[in-house]
Structure formats: C-alpha cells, structure tokens
Amino acid sequence: LLDDGTFIIEVPYLVDLLNNNIFDTVYHEHLSYFLVSPLVRLFSEHGLYVNDVERITIHGGTVRLYIQKHSSQSPALERLLRMEKNEGYTSFGKYEDFELRAKKIKADLITTIEKLHSEGKIIAGFGASAKGSIMLNYCGILPQHIAYIVDDTPEKQGKFMAGCKIPIVSRNELETKMPDYLLVLAWNFFPEVQSKTVNFRNRGGK
Q: What pLDDT was estimated at residue 27?
C-alpha cells in the first residue's frame, strides 16, 4: 500500500446478522461475520489503521472499511465502535440470545406449518436459494410439509432442494397446482417475489 493509499474491504457485519436473526445466511461461502472492533485491532497490529466505515444493506448487512497507513478515525467509526461495546456485541451473552431466537424461529415455523396442514392447507415455497436450503434443513422441513418450491432459474427446475429433497418447479405450477400458502425462502428478494406473485394473491393465495 502506498503511503497515501487507501485499502478498502467489505465484509458481512455480525451486528446485522444478530439483530435480524439471519442465521440462514451462514453457509459454505458465507462463513465469516465480523465486528469492526477486532478488525481495528487486527490491522493496527500490522501498522495499518481503520479510519472510516460505511454500513451497507446488501446480503442482510455488510460494513465497508477504509484502511490507511496513518491513524485518523472518522466520527462514523468512533460511533460504531462505541455501539459495539455499549450494546454488548463483544460479550458472550449476545450470542446465547441469538441461539435462543434461532430456536424460537424454528419452533414457530414448524408450529405454523403443522397448524396449516391440520386445516388441510397446501404450502409451497418460493426461491430455491442457498439460505432457503439452510432454513428448511435446520427446521427439518420435508416434502410432506412443503409440496414444491417455485424458482425461475431453469437450471434449478426439475431438481430437488439439497437435504430435504423438495422438488423445484417453474412458476407455472402456481397456476396448475395452486397452493394456499407460499413460504418465501429468498426473503432478500421479497419485493420482487411480491411482484411476481400478484396473480397468486389475487386468486386468494397467501
């Protein structure tokens, strides 16, 4: 790095993972989630200084760090470091709470699906995403719970979700075998899913 250069990295932000309960984003290419405070320490041990930070909403929340050879911390960085410390992100209890919330989400989803099945409702999924696979397998959801998963990617259609073996189909299935409910698995594209399922909702789908 040149003496007047800036090294910029962007990494998934652990605060957003915890606050939004997005444990389903943790999978093979998304294994590392960071706080800013340990990164400040890491770079300082190598003669580099995190001087500024931006929070970005992509993929549930990331941080973009600006690193230089001299120390000149921005107010935004100082605020973020105070928040991480004051709100307990550097203590173990924050992570025990996260575990409990993940277990509650699992229990609530299973209870909801079982209740709908007891009422004779048919449930399908939307979005054969990696995070969807994590959620379904964590909750133990199988083809007897969800009839199929709609996905617009031709390469996925005719295949099965890994682990739970729920069939993946095209959106045409919503017309020919309309379910009563759609479980949106690709939640990061929820506005797009809404726009693609207007006809489903107009026909009474939920």
A: 87
In the numeric block, which tokens belong to residue 13?
């932000």
How many other CB atoms are found less than 10 A from the CB of residue 117?
13
Number of neighbouring beta carbons within 10 Å of residue 204: 8
Q: For 27-41, what is each residue's pLDDT tens digit?
A: 887 889 999 999 999
Q: How many CA atoms lie within 13 A of 24 on its CB side?
A: 21
Q: Where are the alpha helices (DSSP H) in 27-185?
A: 36-44, 75-86, 93-118, 130-139, 173-176
Helix-then-strand count for the chain, H and E: 8, 7
Distances (CA, A) of 192 to 127, 182, 199: 11, 14, 14
> What is the pTM for the complete model shown?
0.83
